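Write out structure tokens for Phosphate ABC transporter substrate-binding protein.
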Amino acid sequence: MKKILWVPLALFSASVFAEVAVVVHPSNAAALNPEAIAQIYLGRSKSFPDGKAALPLGQAEGSKTTEQFNQKVLNKSGSQIKAYWSKLVFTGKGTPPKEISTDAEMLELVSQNPSVIGYVDKASVTDKVKVLATF
């Protein structure tokens, strides 16, 4: 009977501790710390340290990857992020990152554009992108 309980617990643990990888185009030489990544995703910074434009892409609201990113990188809940962007959009001071549906789509978009920064489940990363950080 104890063995049966371990399987669901192991599956739950794996999903809770999934890592999020922040990715960019392989030619992007940027080195960003977590604070700089957060600044880009909160619309407070519009460029990479070298001055080139930064175009942040997010994943669908409510996805596990987005929840992990919001918690670990932005230190905010999904509802806090939604309220934050609602205020900026209402006042005309910002636009939230465009939402992408899947890790595969995110990786494809990042691999095609040196200005794009995105995040995916670390297990989905391919050699088409460069990992800036994992959380």
